[in-house]
Amino acid sequence: MGSRELAERMSPGEATQSGARPADRHGLLKHSREFLDFFWDIAKPEQETRLAATEKLLEYLRGRPKGSEMKYALKRLITGLGVARETARPCYSLALAQLLQSFEDLPLCSILQQIQEKYDLHQVKKTMLRPALFANLFGVLALFQSGRLVKDQEALMKSVKLLQALAQYQNHLQEQPRKALVDILSEVSVATLQEILPEVLKADLNTILSSPEQLELFLLAQQKVPSKLKKLVGSVNLFSNENVPRLVNVLKMAASSVKKDRKLPAIALDLLRLALKEDKFPQFWKEVVEQGLLKMQFWPASYLCFRLLGAALPLLTKEQLQLVLRGDVIRHYGEHVCTAKLPKQFKFAPEMEDYVGTFLEGCQDDPERQLAVLAAFSSVTNQGLPVAPTFWRVVRFLSPLALQGYVAWLRDMFLQPDLDSLVDFSTNNQKKAQDASLHVPERAVSRLRKWIIFRLVSIVDSLHLEMEEALTAQVARFCLFHAFFVTKKPTSQIPETKQPFSFPLESQAREAASSAFFSLLQTLSTQLKQAPDQTRGGQPWTYHLVQFADLLLNHSHNVTTVTPFSAQQRQAWDRMLQTLKELEAHSSEARAAAFQHLLLLVGIHLLKSPAESCDLLGDIQTCIRKSLGEKPRRSRTKAIDPQEPPWVEVLVEILLALLTQPSHLMRQMARSVFGHICSHLTPRALQLILDVLNPETSEDEDHVVVTDDSDERRLKGAESERCVTCLTAKEQQKAREDEEEMRGGGSEEEERDGDCLDQGFREQLMSVAGKALGGEDSEDEEELGDEAMMALDQSLASLFAEQKLRVQARRDEKNKLQKEKALRRDFQIRVLDLVEVLVTKQPENALVLELLEPLLSIIRRSLRSSSSKQEQDLLHKTARIFTHHLCRARRYCHDLGERAEALHAQVERLVQQAGRQPDSPTALYHFNASLYLLRVLKGNTAEGCVRETREKQKAGTDPSTMPTGPQAASCLDLNLVTRVYSSALSSFLTKRNSPLTVPMFLSLFSRHPLLCKSLLPILVQHVTGPVRPRHQACLLLQKTLSMREVRSCFEDPEWKQLMGQVLAKVTENLRVLGEAQTKAEHQQALSSLELLNVLFRTCKQEKLTLDLTVLLGVLQGQQQSLQQGAHSTGSSRLHDLYWQAMKTLGVQRPKLEKKGAKEVPSATQSPISKKRKKKGFLPETKKRKKRKSEDGTLAEDGTPAATGGSQPPSMGRKKRKRTKAKVPAQANGTPAAKSPAPGTPTLSPSTPAKSPELQKKNQKPSQVNGHPQKALPKKGVLGKSPRSALARKKARLSLVIRSPSLLQSGAKKKKAQLRKAWKS
């Protein structure tokens, strides 16, 4: 392929060159395929492939530096520079550059000359001009990339001239030659540049300012050879008023050229450095950037300004940073951030974040500049709201001093906002708005304070591990103080009271501070420093904040709470502090730490909602005292006071009330506390949780008041509510109807309501309009007067307005119901956390068994109505808990007590429910639940169960049905569950649309093989039943008979008896094989044959002896019917299974002749007549099939037609070896009959004859110790004679099912004799 490509790419002139051409061409043929493939891989698009091919090519050439391969490689690479595929040109250029870099003895001038001769721009055709131009360009780039061009003066001058010539073809190459020229000259020495400069740079300022490349060349010369440039051009001031417009145009062209690359042009950064060097940066920034590029309203130019701003940050001083970061560029950047909200719209904010992060990381030793830049970007606001996100992560690059300064700046801006220091702007839509309230300073201050408070929290969130503990404490105290307290009189003991407000702190800002404070608590509670949520003193952060809050409460003359405390609330606070001191005595217990966390969080919530949290604190303190004071082995169901509920029930109610709050912190705290108390859980406490999850009750009752998030406030209204409000029967009925309406079709409901409303509205219209709108036509109708018409219009207008209000009210009510439903679902999802904790931490608790049916109820309801996101989340979480944490748990309850009978009833109920489900997924959950209960019952031992078993045995119960072994000591009543699952299995086999499936019963059989042993007779019975039960029974038996667990439950005689029963049933099914008329009957035949093959494999593995005579006769009898339906749909699979079974019985599948095959000529036909065929056809002697037929042609009497020398001569060119004739075991599917004489077998007419030598060889194994072996019995005997090594090996196999003769007495002895005879 490589030589072919080279030949195709050669020009016509090259084909008629010097006489050395044929020699080179002959030499190319000697090149290895590996060498030629290198050039194909170099042009591939994969970078790794290209680099690997280039490296291999260089390694190959290093071993042959003087051979013809080097010349061919250079020629091939130069040819590749001008290929038609544009993506391959840079690949060949890079390979050529590496080749020149590796072999420095190759002259560059010679390579450049070859390139120019190959692609001569003056002689090339017009159609090949573009490839030739790119070939010259990439050739020069290859010389430059090799690193040798700047060292070779002659090659450098020629390359410069070539690039200048290529620069004239701008239509094809644009500015690429000039860019390449600038890159080359930037690498040359000063002396070389002085020599070349007059040739490449014109002494015309207009030309210099005409393109970015010319200007970049000018700046390069000014940087490296300023004296030579001054002699050539003179003194030039690029930033003069005359040159500023030209600079702006050049930068605009540069911005357009990098529009797709999205990068900063080098010319812009060079101009910036020149302006800084010449101390003209303010002029450059103001006139060129802000008043030039920015005023063009051209987004590529704006992006260039943004990139120039980011790149200039490390180069500027603090004063210059103030100029840049308070100008029009940063304001325009803020407008872009606010308006670039569409998904497909380009967003510059991530790129600016990289620029700022790079700057902050690079000036760690200058905290003042870091603070100036970060404060400036935080001061870019849209009507008071900063455009920088609150989670801006560039703060991770701040030095500790800069971070402290930034936090102090944020606090000062919160207390005393300086609106004049902000770079504020309004978008075009905001400017068009006529609402004056949008432009007042109070609104800007409110928006700024909300951003600042969340910015402080995000800093702690992202830098909690790196921040100093004192700085974190400052932020936490600041948020706590301004969220819940107000300064009355400053005091030195509380630094927060010394900071006055320039603008009063409005309620919205306090609510934002409250929400941010609880987010901060979550951060401090979940992240680690030395220990979970602890300070250096070993106490939690919440403990220190509660101490700070207590300090504020004790200074009532200086500080007061936003919501004043009553005497009872203050007492609750003091009791909470006392309980915390009591908990310190139990600090070694993990439960005490959880209670401390709960008490601290509820205590802090007392500052926000005193009325609701006061009662919770009292109950929590009571529960804590009781839990820490009770005995470890105390009964779970008994309490000291019958009128007072146990402490764990009260605490569960409290946790449920706290879960109503949309707070992740409360959710984590509830999980933690419940994990420590779930071991003390009582049935009543568990019922409180299940009442929330039970759809039947939760749909009709409002157990809790669930709070919701607003747009800017996370918590609004009551924080907790644990009183259960019961509804009247009428209200329950109304709620139930509303829920059904929400579940039902919304469109039908709207249509029905619309009809009702239309009817009522029509009646009102008729009553208002009177006779005019009554619907009756009157010929003598009189026209209404003006006053009457005005009155009618007014009445109609009021009527339509009322109708509109009613419709809107109904929509609002519907939306409210939907919102309440969504809140209830979210609450149920949070309550499922408690269930998950119970199942994972206490899987051996007997109360876990009470969770099965409530979880199944949730799954049933969610599967029916899983349209909303909340329903789907609830379903997924419930299914995950049920499947992974409950049913698949390794640990389970081992102390059932008196629950065994109830669990048996529950198993029966679950299996019945599984059979009544509308779909299989729902039934699967119920079936798995029953399997889990079976495992629990099987793994439990109870004296009562054993005693019952003994009584049943004494009563005369059949001992065969009683459990034995380990099963006898378990609580599982095998007879009861057998009846349950046998009923389910019968329903599955007989019911047409049963939700039960085959995998369900396979799981049952594999987990409980003893139960499977009792159910197998049902399957065997249905094997010969109607069509559908037969198919399902065969499928189940196929999988079940292969299970090792099931086999271990049977004794050998029982297993053999079972195999015989199944074989008899299958044999009965196969009597109608091939007579299928419907798809179901065809499937039934397939399943029967598959089951038969499974039986054969099982018998082979177990080495069982079964009588297969009847089966063989049945299968042979159905062969004719199978052949008649051979072309029916799906018959190929049926035939494969049939012949697979027949092969196991020793009957080989006949080879089918191809369609259209001509009859085999007789042996007496003359071979000369075979040649007289139609012209153009292959002679019969050349066909493989005819040669075979000649070799094996038999006479009618069964003797060979010609043997040895009597064979007709072959007409082929080569004499092929004739294989020995083999006697097949059968012909056309029937076994070969044995002759009475063992030494001379009789062949059928279709069986090829054997030579005497072969017959003698085949007669040897039929004699044992000189005596002929007895013929196989006629009763279904398969006459076989080994025909090959594989056949002989199969004949030696101990397959008792291969031949019915082995089922007779002495089969093992005969097999041993056969084996001995073969060895001899």
Automatic annotation (TrEMBL):
One MF term from GO for this chain? Answer: transcription corepressor activity
Major subcellular location class? nucleus
Write the record's keywords in alphabetical order, separated by commas: Nucleus
- Which species does the entry assign this protein to? Rhinopithecus bieti (Black snub-nosed monkey)
The lineage is: Eukaryota, Metazoa, Chordata, Craniata, Vertebrata
Q: Bias category Basic residues: which stretches?
A: 1169-1187, 1212-1221, 1307-1320
Give its localization. Nucleus
- Where is region (Disordered) located? 1-24, 731-754, 1149-1320
Family to which the UniProt record says this protein belongs: Belongs to the MYBBP1A family.
The coding gene here is MYBBP1A
Name-wise, this protein is: MYB binding protein 1a
- The answer to whether the entry has keyword Protease is no
Q: Which Pfam families match?
A: DNA_pol_phi
GO CC terms, sorted: B-WICH complex; cytoplasm; NLS-dependent protein nuclear import complex
Q: Which GO terms describe its biological process?
A: cellular response to glucose starvation; circadian regulation of gene expression; intrinsic apoptotic signaling pathway by p53 class mediator; positive regulation of anoikis; positive regulation of transcription by RNA polymerase III; regulation of G1 to G0 transition; respiratory electron transport chain
Query: Quick check: keyword Nucleus in the entry?
Result: yes
